[in-house]
Structure formats: structure tokens, C-alpha cells
Fold this protein.
Amino acid sequence: MNVTIYDVARESGVSMATVSRVVNNNPNVKPQTRKKVYEAIERLGYRPNAVARGLASKKTTTVGVVIPDISNAIFAEVARGIEDIANMYHYNIILCNADKKKEKEIRVINTLLEKQVDGLLFMGGKVTEEHVHAFQTANVPIVLCATTSEQEPIPFVDINHEAAAFDAVTALIVRGHRSIAMISGPMDDPSNGLARLQGYRRALETAGIAFDDKYVRIGNYRYETGNDLMPYFLTMHPRPTAVFAANDEMGIGAIHAIQDAGLNVPGDISVIGIDNTRMASMVRPQLSTVAQPMYDIGAVSMRLLTKLMNKEVVSQSRVVLAHELIVRNSVKANT
């Protein structure tokens, strides 16, 4: 049978109110009484009922996190940042994988809210009207993490994806590349997909290079996409001298497709990505990329959420963190 607070009170010879004060670290308990209660807790193996405590305090000290793909290393890094700050502020995390599917995201959001979480961190793709409705009826703070919303002024922490793509393509242009292809993310993803395509296009037009949609192919952020789409560019005449991939995984797939065709990276074709995952520095040649501060995005998102949950003063609820261009061995000057 479960050990209750009544059992601890009887074992230690004090009132249930005293046991409650000890469990909740109330300072108004004599040291010898506190010691006696802790000894009884140890002997009986008592564990406080978090649900009951939550009902009493109207707080569960639990935060729900909706993540698009737990198998993706970049989201794992975000989750690590979230968890470290959650631990610092004594919050527990319920992590739910939603596969970037709208129906599943809405279902997971509602499930977490039914579990009476104190706040919610949402990582996903496009924030639709259905998402906004779920957020508005939540009655707890919501923070978008590595995600933004153009519809509603929902607090978020992210980078400027359009600017990151612009910097990646500009790095190729300043090295003499004029024929630059892009393996893009899906267009229904407003930040990673559409915004990065817009950054690619702006970089070309800023340099006086005409945008041509035949140099763009749409992927799904997976390695296989980069590997499958790259051969299309290899058959073009003239062949692109450089490729910008909308994330590292597709960039690595592109590198391997180029090598499988008997060509050299960067000797024949330069490749650059976005994210700076661990794999970017493990592949050969090492992939040039634009680094997102994924750990910091998670940590800052969680800290912002703790402020909102505790009704602290928030000076900035829409946070854009800096990105960093990292040029490695997959890019060379086109002479």
C-alpha cells in the first residue's frame, strides 16, 4: 500500500501539518522535529504526492515541451538547454514528440494542458489558426522555441533565418560563385523553409545575380533528400559551382551525392548548410555552415517561460539570438 502523510505523522509522533511543513521546506519547524520527520520518511519510504500538492497549490511545477523530432540532433540540443534551466528553477519537463504534424501537435498541446502543466514550450513548423486557438484557451504561459508566429504576438526565442541564409549564400558569392543552387526546406515551414529561401534570393539579387527557380529544389531536411536531389543539379549545363542546403543534414547528403558521382567537394562544387550540428564537423570535408545557438535557444526560452509563469517583469518577450557563419573545408573560391 502507498505510504501516506498520515503514516509519516503517526510514525514520527507529530501532526500531519508538521509533516507537510517539513516536506515543503517551511522554516518554522524545530531542527529536532525536522530530523524526526525525515527519519520517519526514510524508514517508510514516503514520497510526496505531486498531484495532491499541485491541487493544493494550483501549481504542478511541470512544463510541457512539444518537440518536432526527438531523433534530430538539433532538437536534442534545444531540449538540453530547456532541461538545464528547468532544473535550475525546480521545474519538471514532460517532453512530447509531434513529428511536425499539425494534428498531432494540437493533440499533444491539449494533452499537456489536461495534465495541468504550468507552462508550455512549443517547437514546430507553421503556427496555424488551430495552434493559436489552442494557445489562447490554455490559461498558462506559452513560449515558441526555435519557432515564430506572424499571426499573433506570442512570445518566442529564435534566430533570424532569412539573415542566416543571406549570410551563407553571401559567403559563396564573395568567393566568386555566381551559379549557386539551393536545396530548400518545405515552403509551408515559414521560418526554416520560406525564410531561408527568401534569404537565398535576397543574397543573389543583392549581388546582381538573377534568381532562377530551376536552381531550387524542395527537400524535407533529411539526409536522403540532399542525397536524392543533388544529382539533378549535376546534370545541369552549366553545372552550379556551389550549393546552399537549408540544413546540415541535406548538405551532408549533397556532399555524398557529389562524391558518389566522382566529383570533388570543394574542388568541383562548394557546399554550405545551416545549423552547425555535430555531423557538420565529422563529415569529410567538414561542412561549412551557419551556426544556430541551439542550446541557448532552449535555455533562453525556458528562462523566459519561468518569468511568465512567475509573473516577473519581462522586458523583451520576442527574442532573436545571433547566428554565426562558420567556413570550413567544403567551400573554396571559384576561380
About this structure: The chain has a mean pLDDT of 89. The first strand starts at residue 62 and ends at 67. The chain has three domains: 5-48, 61-159+294-323, 161-292.
